[in-house]
Amino acid sequence: MTEPVKPGLDGPDFSAYKIAGLYAVLGGLWITFSDRLLWALVKDQAWVNSLQTYKGWFYVAVTAVLLYFLIRTALARIKRLEEARRATELKFLQAQKMELVGRLASGVAHDFNNVLTAIMGLAQITMRSMDEADTRRADLEDIINFSGHAAALTSQLLAFSRKQFFQPRPLDLNAQIKTSEKMLRRAAGEAVGIEFQLAGDLWKVMADPSQVDQVLLNLAVNARDAMPQGGKLSIKAANLEVGKSLHADGEELPPGEYVMLTARDTGCGMDQATMARAFEPFFTTKELGKGTGLGLSVVHGIVEQAGGRITMESKPAEGTVFRICLPRYSGPEPAPAPAAPRELPAGGKETVLLVDDQPEILMVMRRIAESQGYTVLGAGSYEEALARAASAGRIDLLVTDILLTGKSGVDLADRLLERQPGLKALFISGQAADPGVYDRVAAKNRPFLPKPFTAEALLAKVRQALDAPAA
Ligand SMILES: Nc1ncnc2c1ncn2[C@@H]1O[C@H](COP(=O)(O)OP(=O)(O)OP(=O)(O)O)[C@@H](O)[C@H]1O
Ligand SMILES: [Mg+2]
């Protein structure tokens, strides 16, 4: 949960003691010396008398003017404080709401991923067992494709709730945008022309490529919806150096080096009320069935997760600009990952221990692995897995869900590794309940497979894990 931030206030800080003290000293000096000054300057007694009356008025006038300014600044200050407090409160409430919806969404997505994995896996095994000429293959292919659409939706939900397992790496946004160009043009539709302005020698950022795609895609789809009669969308990437903290939309951008991604459309724009809620999950102005209202909240979640900031600017009937600033990555380049094998992954004769507390997933994984010749042991829980491992002979690979009702698959792997040094492990999961657990997988560079997965993906990862040199 985000802590409410203490609002920083600009403007001078008038200390009441200082002002009162200064006033007393100046007033005392005035009373003591003004008469002497008057006598020194004016010799005529009548003149002195009338000037003395004005002197009193002068004193009152100066005090009144001073009081006026003091009270005015004090009131403005109180008002500013109050506004800042209210803004913080609103932000806090908003964060709380996001957190709640996020938890709900990720819970649903987790269960959904399990079901999808089972559906896709079964459809693929069945399809493989069919004759090439079988006409029912097309139906199965459709089932797999539709499951793929559903998987894309759950990945939106998980990205929004920031519980998606993401694999950031140093990324050249130019290259990423270029590889997604086709997809973006298709998403924006024929009526919308996309113009790319990509600065040369762009800095790298640390981000997950598929999340960057998701951000670009959501912005492009929104731009298309905002320009039903057609228009222009320009996507720009440029380096940005921030000297002093920047403030925009109440978001602060600390000094540093950033890569700024700008998406500008010439669409219908947004009024103040829409802008205020645009990033809210499930907020949509689109008719039923056209929008889920998740697009921008997903974008927001991804940008925050990458340590960046997003702001928007919009005018009804003129257009909208989204600006995303991602911190520059200037660390070392990791070695490129070996390319994924193109042909159908080979099977093997090794013994694999599969652990998942979802019976349907366990069943599907078992069938996939067995169909390729592996000897499979299955376990539905942490304890069962330990018992299985104890009674079994040699195990070549452990494939386990990271979350095993109350226990951790990573702990299981470590425990089994103590018994059988050199044991290899592959982790699977549909959601990151505890980011720390994921760090333990990511930090050691352990093989990981996000749910939902296809039979091919599982087989490829299993083979890859088995063939990797022992840690
Ligand atoms: N480029 C844009 N121009 C005008 N309005 C926009 C733009 N992008 C977003 N909006 C407004 O913000 C709302 C929320 O956007 P968001 O992407 O979160 O949801 P959606 O597009 O309605 O649904 P979804 O993206 O889930 O299909 C939109 O309904 C729309 O009113
Ligand atoms: Mg959208």
Distance between the termini: 37 Å
Query: What class would the helix/strand composition place it in?
Result: alpha/beta
Total domains:
4
CATH arch. level architecture of the largest domain? 2-Layer Sandwich
What is the top-level CATH class of the largest domain?
A: Alpha Beta
The count of DSSP E runs of length 2 or more, i.e. the number of strands, is 16
| Shape, per Cα inertia axes | elongated
Query: Considering DSSP H and I runs of 4 or more, what fraction of the residues is helical?
Result: 40-55%
- The name CATH uses for the topology of the largest domain is Heat Shock Protein 90
Name the average pLDDT: 84
Give the quaternary arrangement of the chains.
Answer: single chain
Largest sheet: 7 strands, mixed
Taking Cα atoms only, what radius of gyration do you get, to the nearest Å? 33 Å
Number of alpha- plus pi-helical segments:
12
**Beta-strand residue percentage:** 15-25%
Describe this structure in words.
With 471 residues, this protein is of the alpha/beta class. The chain folds into 4 domains: 16-97, no CATH class; 106-160; 169-329, Histidine kinase-like ATPase, C-terminal domain (Heat Shock Protein 90); 351-467, Response regulator (Rossmann fold), CATH 3.40.50.2300. 51% of the residues lie in helices and 19% in strands. The chain contains 12 helices and 16 strands. The strands form 4 sheets. Strands 1, 2, 3, 4, 7, 8 and 9 form a 7-stranded mixed β-sheet that branches. Helix 8 (359-371) links the parallel strand 10 and strand 11. The longest helix has 85 residues, at 45-129. It starts with 15 loop residues before the first helix and ends with a helix. Mean pLDDT is 84; it is low at 1-11 and 337-342. Magnesium ion binds at residues 218, 221-222, 291, 295.
